[in-house]
Amino acid sequence: MTAKRIVVVSSGLSTPSSTRQLADRLAADAVSILAGRGVEAEVQTFELRDLAHDITNNLLLGFAPPKLEAALDAVAAADGLIAVTPIFTTSYAGLFKSFIDVVDTQALTDLPVLIGATGGTPRHSLAIDYAIRPLFTYLHAQPVTTGVYAATSDWGGTGAAGEGDGVRSLPDRIYRGAKDFADLVERTDRSSLVRDPFALEGPSGHLIGGLAGE
């Protein structure tokens, strides 16, 4: 059986980053769950802070430099995407949205997506459902039911992950989200997805004035 390809995208700006920490834990649980079912998974992780200049250049010029192109190709070929962003001003980070803007519009079709977010206060947890989930739904991806939000206070909590009905601790939420994601990844087959070889690589709005005034 061919290994499932999981791509992790983290848009944390600091090093070390709680956003990257959450992304790594989501990926680790998803891989562990799939392994328990006899499904091998390969994980490839991209830190968007390392691609920030390339993303900007792509938005301005319409061409992806090699490192960014590798990330975009990985997303297009993935069987599942774990996307984690910090929450700034009640919504996703600008760097996160800019990366999504340069992803081919067909690349996310039917792609299982596990959404993660981090922030200073639990009050911003709803951003997953009112800001991030609609973004991936619009792009015809398959965002899993459980999104995982981690506030600063969550990182000091304890508790073992499990499948109980009372999902409260961060490890519990990570496990639940990873399980929902693994369920989708396991049964998803994107090998037959045909991309248009003549499609523009990246957004075309700037070519027709769609980004004028932005």
TrEMBL record:
Any Pfam family the entry gives: FMN_red
Domain NADPH-dependent FMN reductase-like: 5-155
UniProt keyword Cytoplasm present: no
Alphabetical list of Gene3D superfamilies matching this protein: 3.40.50.360
Entry GO MF terms: FMN reductase (NADPH) activity
InterPro entries per record: CE1759_FMN_reduct, Flavoprotein-like_sf, FMN_Rdtase-like_dom, NAD(P)H-dep_FMN_reductase
Broad enzyme group: oxidoreductase
This protein's UniProt keywords: Flavoprotein, FMN, Oxidoreductase
Name listed for the protein in its UniProt record: FMN reductase
Biological source species: Agromyces terreus
